Amino acid sequence: MSKSHDHDHSGHSHHHGESRWKHDGVRVIPGNQLDPNVPSTAGMDRKAAINFARVGAQKLWAGTVTIKPDAKTGAHHHGHLESIIYVVKGKARMRWGDHLEFTAEANPGDFIFVPPYVPHQEINASPDEALECVLVRSDGEAVAINLDIEPVEKPEKVLWVDPVHRDPNAS
User: Fold this and answer.
1) Which residue ranges does the record annotate as region Disordered (predicted)?
2) Distance (Å, whole) CA 43 – CA 103
C-alpha cells in the first residue's frame, strides 16, 4: 500500500501548510452574530445561525425564535420541511390543524416536533416573559408559508403518548 498525500487525514495537509479542514470544518457561530434576514411570520422574531448561505449546510437550518409576552404568530407551515423547536425560556403554546383546533404546551427543556405541511401557530403563553426557542429544520433553505386561517374558539388539548413506552394496559 503506497502512502498517498491525498489520503492523509492526520490534519497535516501538505498544501500551503494548512489543513483542508481549517476553514471547511467545524464552525462556531456566536449568538450575537445571527442573521435576521429570514422569511418572516407576523409576531415572531426569527434569526438564522446555520443555513446554506452562511455555512453551506445542505440538510439543516438552525436558528432562534423569540416571541414577545402575550404575543402569537400568524398561522403558517414550512412546506416539506420537518421542524424541531427546543424551548429555552418561557412558556410555549402550540396550536395546529386546519382550523388550529389542537393545542399543547411546552416548557423550558421541552422539544416540539412539527411535521411537514402542518398548519400551526406559536403562542407565548406568558403575559410577562419573552418566549425564547431554538429552531432546527430539515433543509438548508428556510421555508415559511403564511396561511389565512379562521381559528376555532376552543382548541382541544392533545397530550403526547410515547409510542415506545406505551402503557400495555391502555386501550
Assistant:
1) 1-22
2) 18
